[in-house]
Amino acid sequence: MGTSRDAGASSPGATQQPVMFDETQTASTAPTPKDASTVILVRDGQSGVEVFLLRRATEMAFAGGMTVFPGGGVDPSDGVADVRWAGPPVSWWAERFGVDEPSAKALVCAAVRETFEECGVLLAGPTEDSVVESTAGFSEARRQLEARELSFADFLARENLVMRTDLLRPWANWITPVQEGRRYDTRFFVAILPEGQDADGETSEAAEVAWRTPAAAVDDWRERRSVLLPPTWSQLATLEQFDDVDAILAAEPEISPILPELRFVDGKPWVLFPGDAGYYGTGALPWG
């Protein structure tokens, strides 16, 4: 970290588009959450595990200005992608995330695609047991993917690459509260940064990027240098417990859907979720 897009402690303060709630919206009237995939990219650093974080561009309609992991919504092409697949079968992913197989395939494809689009890390290789050493030669394809001018399946086929789903691990499942206008049913994955590849911020969706230890990222939030949504804060707090990336990959977390509950206390929004005790009273909140 330390590029012009550094999202670390050097930032003087957090500026974001505040999350807006509709108190009248109920489970029966709320929009159906859209499937999404988020990838927690990790590596071993001098001070322990480091995670790759992006501060989203303030003008983004969802989570603008907030610090997040790479990820995004499932694209219709993800579910029908005809790709060479290395790793656990689709049925295994479906069981782990509690979804049908077409949805599982779409979620995994979206995870690999979004990671490449948002930070240039490609979990694919020329064979089932290799990974590309550099993605520098794919910059135009990356632009086309982000602009939806090229499908991820066509890109992999053109470059004769195998998608390495074995480099991913299922991690968590969070659903946006019913009172929000934009809702996502997000599956979280973890993945190790492949050797030889670099994560960057060359995407229109990121204003700043950085590698941070989970503790340092939480400290940035606590000092109001960043804004973390509850799912991001929760994953960082969990990752603080691991000494290295091997321990993270060996973990088998129970994945149950978490749907935070919104309440208003003294006229202010209060989002309840498992382990939320440390979230209030210190850091910057997404709703101002």
UniProtKB/TrEMBL annotation:
This protein's record includes keyword Oxidoreductase: no
Highest taxon of source: Bacteria
CDD domains per the UniProt record, alphabetical: NUDIX_AcylCoAdiphos_Nudt19 (cd18870)
Organism whose genome encodes this protein: Rhodococcus xishaensis
InterPro entries: NUDIX_hydrolase-like_dom_sf (IPR015797), NUDIX_hydrolase_dom (IPR000086), NUDT19 (IPR039121)
PROSITE patterns to which the protein is assigned, alphabetical: NUDIX (PS51462)
Keyword Hydrolase: yes
Domain Nudix hydrolase: residue ranges: 32-243
MF (Gene Ontology): hydrolase activity, acting on acid anhydrides, in phosphorus-containing anhydrides; metal ion binding
Record's keyword terms, sorted: Hydrolase, Magnesium, Manganese, Metal-binding
Cofactor or coenzyme needed: Mg(2+); Mn(2+)
Protein name: NUDIX hydrolase
